[in-house]
Amino acid sequence: MAANKGLRKGGRGPRPHVWICGPDEYKHQMYIPFLKAKAQAKFREEPWELEFEDYFTIWNGYWADRGRDRDSLCMTRKDWSDSWSKDNIILVTRLEHCQRQAANSRRVWAAKGLPRKYKSKHNPEGL
Predict the structure, then answer these.
(1) How far is CA 115 from CA 7, 58, 106, 108, 127, in A?
(2) Which of 3, 37, 68, 84 is 20 to 30 A from residue 44's alpha carbon, by CA?
(3) 11 domain residue, yes or no
(4) Domain-located, residue 120
């Protein structure tokens, strides 16, 4: 017996009437990534003031452009000392995000008075 495509175990298919974000499939596919981003911010102890509707508004029309390539879009904060809020978020390419992250990292190291490469138990030569 062939399994029906799209049906869950027990023969029930998708149930959009119970989805938290509503019956829209496009919104539904954004909900789990929203929860993951929120959980990651909580893990890093970063303030999160973003609601799902704000997240949807930011990504609406750009969702297909996400990915892992250098030209794919990712969400980042304008000011990293501020919270994740709709006024502090921009969509940038992953390449631009990595460049911003490296520049911020250099600023933090310089403010702490640390050399760019320092010795540790995992890096005894300081390379």
Answers:
(1) 57, 38, 9, 11, 11
(2) 68
(3) no
(4) no
- What's the rounded Cα separation, in Å, for the pair 33 and 55? 10
Domain enclosing residue 42, as ranges: 21-112
Residue in 70, 114, 110, 108 with CA at minimum distance from that of residue 92: 70
Give the 3-state secondary structure of 58-121.
HHCCCHHHECCCCCCEEEEECCCCCCECCCCEEEEEHHHHHHHHHHHHHHHHHHHCCCCCCCCC
pTM for the whole thing? 0.67
Residue for token digits 């399994």? 3
Flag the least confident range among 16-20, 43-47, 55-59: 16-20
78 touches 89 (CB < 8 A): yes
Residue 74 lies in a domain: yes
Q: Is residue 104 part of a domain?
A: yes
What angle in degrees, to the nearest 10, is found between the helix axes of 25-43 and 52-59?
110
Give the chain's domain count.
1
CB atoms within 10 A of CB 33: 14
